[in-house]
Amino acid sequence: MGAGASVEDFRKEAAQHGFTEEQMKLVEKWKNSLPKPTEANIILLTDSYKVSHHVQYPPNTSKIYSYFESRGGKFQEVCFYGLQYFLKKYLTGVVVTREKIDEAEKVYAQHFQATTNLFNKAGWEYILEKHGGRLPVRIKAVPEGTVLPVRNCCMTVENTDPKCYWLPNFLETVLVQTWYPMTVATNSREQKRMILKYLHETGDPSDLELVETKLHDFGFRGVSSVETAGLGGSAHLTQFMGTDTVAAMVVARDYYNKTDDVAGFSIPASEHSTITAWGKDNELKAFENMLDKYPTGVVACVSDSYNIFEACSELWGEKLRDRILERDGVLVVRPDSGDPKTIDLKILEILGEKFGYETNSKGYKVLPPQIRIIQGDGIHYETVIEILEYLKQFGWSASNIAFGSGGGLLQKLNRDTLKVAFKAALAVVDGKEIEVYKDPITAPGKKSKRGYMTVNRGEDGIIRTRTGADRDEKTDILETVFEDGKLVKEYDWATVRENAKITLDMILSKKKGSPSSTVRKCSATSSQSFHRSVPADENESTKQQDSVDSKTKSSSTDEEELDMKSSSSEPSKGQVPCSS
Fold first, then answer.
1. Residue 470 gets which letter from DSSP?
2. Predicted confidence band at 554 (pLDDT cuts at 50, 70, 90)?
3. Residue spans of beta strands (DSSP E) within 1-131
4. Which residue in 145, 214, 194, 230 sits closest to 410, CA to CA?
5. What is the DSSP secondary-structure string of 352-378?
6. Looking at residue 35, what DSSP letter applies?
7. Which in 117, 202, 213, 506 has the greatest CB count within 10 A?
8. Which pLDDT tens digit goes with each residue over 454-465?
9. Hey, is 152 helix, strand or coil?
10. Residue 30 has what pLDDT?
11. Strand pairing of 215-217 and 147-149?
12. Taking the model in full, what pTM does it have?
């Protein structure tokens, strides 16, 4: 019988083998007492060296109080998300059993060469006997989805039983993995900030309504695990609605109670196999098949299997042009190779020539609503800015393009992207509170906070962490989310999205001025006429594109300085915003 067999399956098979009812109950009881194959052993979910830490604290230690923060990094504010997943999956309920203790004892005996002062069997047995296998810790955190400046406390952890002082930092390994969904949510939010900026500068007001679909998650296949896909993909969905990472919707449903509807949406789309299977000489038939099978709605078609430029000019732009313009929906042309910004510009120029374009209220060119493009190759924070600025310089609105991102969205990140850390801030030894901190002379940026702390939103709206006598418990936004094995505060998906949102009004309210960049706008034209933004002379075109490349980099850096600033109570001297 397979590991996933149900109790009913077990009872049926047992009955077939002549088991009596009493025998079936005994075997069933034994079977249910075993750790489930998918059930993690919390005693094994830690860094090896932490197994030995219980004897390294001062004698008569009765409390360790630790906190989690971003010490700086790529962005100047973070979107806190993902803790609830780890609490539900790994910490809630009875997580310590006799079988798990025995398993851990065996593993650690084989793992370590030393024979003394290692596995804290007595400590885990105490949790099993005294607390019924539930973890005696209290975790407080800012509400999920909260956006706050770096160098602010996001979470605190402390033991509630004085004999379990060693437990808060034993749990660091699992809890710090919150860095990943938090970093993805932050990264997606910052990309949304930049897309909103360019839609505002180059699009009509109605274009802002489309921002939720402008960055699509292509990352499932490129991440390290299914769990990574679910966590990271759901983090992206705190900002956008477009995803091909199905595991992301499952996480939002199962861990954030998104049960009224799915958290993300997608569209029919081709891949190279469904196009190239028709053969090179039948690419037109492959394209026709896409229009036949999806006569209405949005559909995307990869178009670079052979010659993206001929596909756009001759197939989409001539032979299928009328079908596309008469279609009730949008065809999204997808290039998938070459230098993204130059390929996107050339495709827009070709499609503009074949389908015509209008000039919007901001003076930028917009293709007919039946056709758009999506760039899904090499997309990350920097290239999104680079492409949008490049298209802007040549007079194309950001409303013409959407992005798909895989590795740059979910995989090319690490704990140092936001310099995430978990540090002890207070210990109680011999009944006395001792403020605990680190302040290495070789790394001032790693100086940690000391003492009990609160996180408070000031009258100016800025969130600051207050420590020691300066803390304010009355206005503390840290909430107890976990205590003694129970999830005591839960956030639903709608609340997380509301907390994490970013809007154009929020961006404009932070601006101190406008970036200095040269904009090449189009003159008013008929929707059926075509005016090339790139000079016909190839040498002159190259010079002009080199000039625009320089302006793109300058504008991107300026925009970083203008739009990414947020106040912090403890600014990092070594912090440098990432620019393209």
1. G
2. very low
3. 61-70, 77-79
4. 230
5. HHHH--EE-TTS-EE--TTEEEEE-SS
6. P
7. 202
8. 999 999 999 999
9. coil
10. 66
11. unpaired
12. 0.84
> Which amino acid type is present at position 507?
I
At position 458, the amino acid (one-letter code) is G
Residue 170 has which token pair? 């034993």
Q: Would you list the DSSP string of 395-460?
A: TB-GGGEEEEESHHHHTS--GGGTTEEEEEEEEEETTEEEE-----TT-GGG----S-EEEEE-TT
359-391 pLDDT per residue, tens: 999 999 999 999 999 999 999 999 999 999 999
Query: Three-class SS of residue 73?
Result: coil
Domains of the chain: 1-34 (no CATH), 183-196+203-412 (3.20.20.70)
CB atoms within 10 A of CB 201: 18
Residue written as tokens 């229009």? Answer: 291
Spatial distance between the Cα atoms of 283 and 275, rounded to a whole number of angstroms: 7
- Judged on CB neighbours under 10 Å (0-12, 13-18, 19+), 38 is exposed
Could you tell me how many residues make up the chain? Answer: 580
What the block records as the tokens of 235 is 């983090």
What are 356-360's contacts with CB under 8 Å, separation 24+? 356/526, 356/527, 356/528, 356/529, 356/530, 357/525, 357/527, 357/530, 358/525, 358/527, 359/522, 359/523, 359/524, 359/525, 360/202, 360/203, 360/204, 360/397, 360/399
